[in-house]
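>> Question from a student workshop board

For tomorrow's exercise we were told to take the sequence and the ligand below, predict the bound structure, and bring the output to class. My setup keeps failing. Could a helper post the expected result so I can at least see what it should look like? The ligand is threonylcarbamoyladenylate.
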Amino acid sequence: MSVFPASAENIYKLATVISIGKPVAFPTETVYGLGVDARNDEAVAKIFEIKCRPQFNPLIVHVRDLAQAETLGIFSPIAKSLALMHWPGALTLVVPRRSNNASHNEVSLLASAGLPSLALRVPAHPVAQELLTAAQCPLAAPSANKSGQLSPTQASHVAKDFPNLPILDGGACAKGLESTIIGCLQEEPVLLRRGSLDPSELEKTLGFKLNFLPEDDSQTAQLAPGRLVRHYAPQAGLRLNAVTVEQDEGLLAFGKDVPPCENLCLNLSSSGNLIEAAANLFTHLHELDTKTPRIAVMPIPNEGLGAAINDRLERAAASK
Ligand code: TXA
Ligand code: MG
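>> Workshop helper replied:
Here is what the output should look like for this input. Compare the format with yours to find the bug.
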């Protein structure tokens, strides 16, 4: 039995599950989310694994209030006015991260797929609010469904996809459609995803019409080349499936049989654990990127999370 009625006692109990790095499904007013401590790289990696996501799409980070959001992201006056008017609610704001170094108290770089931005949301559902208070950390939470399935709006929908996960039952979601996402990275905010908050409500706050810049890569590239950085692209050139390391290269290693390297060598997982490798991917890439002009990358098995790791490495290599 994995469905727990959302009593104060159960909320507290499941907050302790989050504190040991495990996922918990919880209701929001839009859809159910699958939440982990957003600061914990390995916990975030597990989310991608259990959702069977073939790619590291950035996740929405849920916080209690605007004050907590401002410790993680930088709010322009426009972003702040949207937050003041529409939080708590079905609005997600993409804002610049406060820092790119995923140190102890910061959001995992994996949660934002290595991007220098963060998607932040303050949910209105009282159970989500109570869980955020009890857990005392920001929660990275995608919708609580397997990749490619419908978003869950009842605890029983979540249980169908994830029978073994703890689920807080807060009843049916009032809105039943994901949050509306607004990008606040440039001077002018843009609509990135339509959702349950009607953009005309936001336009009333803003006093002007929003441009729709879909998050989908190909369309974005056509509509506004270079305006929206969807994927983290390192400056350094990447050479994939490397078995030896050249003189000017740093090494992104995997497993225990590491070739000799004269420069910086960072191992994704010396024991060959793909969850650990995913957890380290963006932090190691960022560090190698700042310290070496070229990065050799050892082969990574294309199974489980390895497929998502390889997808991201291939995009990074192709971006040069
Ligand atoms: O209603 C919702 O938004 C639900 C509940 C659980 O909060 N969550 C949700 O999460 O729909 P998910 O992971 O299914 O969708 C997250 C979306 C992705 O499509 C991603 O592209 C976008 O948010 N996103 C996240 N971080 C971003 C970033 N830094 N830049 C641009 N887009 C971002
Ligand atoms: Mg989803």
